[in-house]
Design brief:
single chain; alpha/beta; TIM Barrel; nine-stranded mixed sheet; 6 helices; 9 strands; binds iron/sulfur cluster
Length: 203
């Protein structure tokens, strides 16, 4: 049987700080996998969409690089990382005591073993039901006022311990930020997430 997930198309890797959500400020190694079929109009990594433009890398080599960096946690992002089977990568990272964090739009079946799943659904492609219960964090990018009600509708389907974040779309951040602040003053389960890494000027 051919083992899937032993090599993956990688757009970039870098050791930085997590800028968003519950782990904002934590040192984290990022692996950005290529491939995405969601098609968000405001996507800031459109160059990730076509996985054929990015080299395949052996998972073993990726794990070696994460371990060598000394990072305590590894964020697998994209693109949409679940376009690929992530069992081998995440099991390997876990064996080295590295936390595994996923950032996903939830449009593809879940693979991998995870310490933290950030579910970031998009209006451009409906997510699968399993992400409403499997995720620890819901993060909705706010690009329009109507996204606030859309976010609330998703939150209603999630367990009470889930952390809820609203994040201004970067290009519209001034306007969206004030809408979000008004919203969370009333809807106090929610938090605002800002892209800390962009304010810090790091990747
Ligand atoms: S899911 Fe992410 S990578 Fe894919 S189009 Fe949307 S923002 Fe871009």
């Amino acid at each position: 049987m051919i083992q899937t997930g032993i090599s993956l198309p990688v757009m970039e890797t870098f050791y930085t700080v997590q800028g968003e959500g519950a782990f904002a400020g934590a040192p984290a190694y990022f692996i950005r996998l290529a491939g995405c079929d969601v098609g968000c109009v405001w996507c800031d990594v459109k160059e990730s969409w076509d996985e054929t433009l990015h080299p395949m890398q052996q998972v073993e080599d990726l794990i070696t690089a994460v371990v060598a960096s000394g990072a305590p946690l590894c964020v697998i992002t994209g693109g949409e990382p679940l376009m690929h089977n992530l069992d081998v990568l995440t099991e390997g990272l876990r064996k080295h005591g590295i936390r595994t964090h996923l950032e996903t739009s939830g449009t593809q079946p879940l693979t991998g073993v995870w310490d933290w799943i950030t579910f970031s659904p998009k209006k451009f492609k409906a997510p699968l039901d399993e992400f409403f219960t499997a995720s620890q964090e819901l993060k909705v990018i706010v690009n329009h006022a109507s996204d606030l009600d859309w976010a609330a509708g998703h939150a209603e389907k999630m367990p009470t311990q889930t952390m809820f974040y609203l994040q201004p779309e970067w290009e519209k951040r001034d306007r969206m930020q004030s809408l979000i602040l008004d919203f969370i003053r009333v809807n106090t389960r929610w938090r605002i997430s800002v892209q800390t890494h962009k304010y810090l000027g790091v990747d």
